[in-house]
Design goal:
6-stranded antiparallel beta sheet; 5-stranded mixed beta sheet; 12 helices
Length: about 475
């Protein structure tokens, strides 16, 4: 058994180390490819913008009307010499291969200025001479169309001197295209810079791979294999002990338990089997816990819920009273109590029966719950309800009081053909830390206010009493 575990341990080490080497190799290649693509694109875009910027600056510096004269008569003057000097200075200071100013005709270009000393005023050049790549004709047609339409254009092409980035910018006299500026920037250095950068990245990744490989190799036993073996052995012992203690119980191991179908060998398979065994025990305990929790919730709900109205009952209010008394003692309390009483309930019971009385209580509870939607509602007596206002509803007591009146009016209109209607007397008292020592004192003030309003209602409207 020990020999098998050692073999499995070695197999895991080999798999882990091989996976690390492969992962680093893949990452190195992927990084090299991505760097090459992004670095090349970045350099080409940078050269393109530089060439286009230089072409625009030169185009804006040339007198278009002078170009017409040079193209027609092929004669040089002081302005011509001045521009020639300017172009030579730009070429040397900006590291440009060549700067040309040409006048386009149907199939060729006539040179006006050029930093190439072999080209003189009036020399001609075909559109196809712009490029030497495989797509020569297609690119030449595109350049020709852009020149005729007066559009700026940049493209990378290969000539006898190597790769270059060329920018073309029109020179206009009003809406007329008189000539265009051609600026060539060498871009052979892009390939050299990219090659150097990729080589550097690969060398760094190789060094990192070797260092990481060495560290992982020596730390693998300390950080992974030995702890994993100890964990497997400890788990095995725990499962054996638990099985011995629970042999007399068939209830513990039931179908539907987590089963891991792992056949990797060594500690991982052993750990999987150990977890499976433990999961059976845990499932049994969890099932019992869930059942107990459900029963507890059921009994708590039944103990703190009024059977008739399904709102909370007096026992639930007693629990809340203890909590609020604690808040009062810690100077953290901020609440109000609404005391509510169903008017004329005794008259309804005596005249129309207890079923009507029960319906009146249910309707009253529904009205109260619609009004105080964010607060707990308690039925504390036959016709008495209590509502605790905290938070948002504490701040809008006046609004809720008005809403209570509106809801009672709506309910009366809804049942206007019924011989009795639901009417609720209420009183609201806020907790005052200066005068209230506990919950009971606030409760009694709310009850007193409600009682006074109820008596006034009987007196003013002739409502039948309890």
């Amino acid at each position: 058994m020990a020999i098998k575990k050692r073999k499995a341990s070695r197999a895991i080490k080999k798999h882990l180390l091989a996976s690390i080497i492969i992962a680093f190799f893949v990452v190195t290649v992927a990084i090299a490819v991505l760097v090459k693509i992004h670095f090349t694109n970045y350099m080409q875009e940078s050269y393109s913008k530089n060439a286009e910027g230089i072409a625009h600056i030169i185009a804006n510096s040339i007198d278009a009307d002078k170009i017409k004269k040079y193209a027609k008569y092929n004669e040089e003057d002081d302005y011509y010499v001045q521009i020639s000097g300017l172009l030579d200075d730009c070429r040397s200071s900006l590291e440009v291969d060549a700067i040309n100013i040409c006048v386009p005709s149907d199939e060729e270009l006539i040179y006006i200025w050029s930093t190439n000393k072999d080209i003189e005023l009036g020399d001609a050049k075909s559109f196809n001479d712009f490029v030497y790549d495989g797509k020569k004709d297609e690119l030449a047609a595109q350049i020709k169309a852009n020149i005729k339409e007066g559009n700026s254009n940049t493209y990378a092409a290969r000539d006898n001197d190597g790769y270059s980035m060329t920018a073309i910018c029109p020179i206009k006299s009003g809406d007329e295209i008189v000539a265009f500026v051609e600026v060539n920037l060498p871009i052979d250095t892009i390939a050299e810079n990219t090659k150097w950068f990729i080589t550097f990245i690969i060398q760094m990744m190789v060094v990192i791979t070797i260092v990481t490989f060495i560290i992982l190799y020596f730390r693998l036993n300390v950080l992974i294999m030995k702890p994993l073996g100890k964990l497997s052995q400890a788990t095995d012992n725990f499962v054996k002990n638990e099985n011995a203690k629970s042999d007399d119980s068939d209830e513990i191991y039931r179908p539907g338990i987590f089963e891991a179908d792992i056949h990797t060998g060594g500690e991982i398979e052993t750990l999987s089997k150990s977890f499976t065994a433990m999961s059976k025990r845990l499932d049994h305990y969890i099932t019992n816990l869930i059942e107990v929790t459900r029963q507890k919730e059921h009994y708590e709900t039944a103990a703190y819920t009024d059977d008739l109205t399904r709102v909370k009952n007096k026992a639930a209010l007693s629990v809340e009273e203890d909590s609020l008394d604690l808040q009062i003692s810690e100077d953290k309390a901020r609440f109000a109590i609404v005391m509510l009483d169903v008017n004329s309930l005794k008259h309804i019971n005596d005249t129309y029966g207890h079923t009507a009385g029960d319906n009146a209580i249910i309707e009253a509870a529904a009205i109260i719950c619609r009004v105080f939607q964010l607060s707990h509602v308690y039925r504390v007596g036959g016709d008495e309800f209590v509502c605790l206002l905290e938070g948002y509803e504490y701040d809008i007591q006046d609004t809720l009081e008005q809403k209570l009146k509106e809801e009672m009016e709506k309910e009366a209109k809804k049942h206007q053909d019924r011989p009795w209607k639901v009417s609720i007397a209420y009183g609201i008292a806020k907790y005052d830390p200066k005068s209230d020592d506990d919950f009971k004192s606030v409760y009694e003030r709310a009850d007193h206010i409600m009682y006074e309003r109820k008596q006034k209602m009987y007196k003013d409207k002739g409502v039948i009493g309890r």
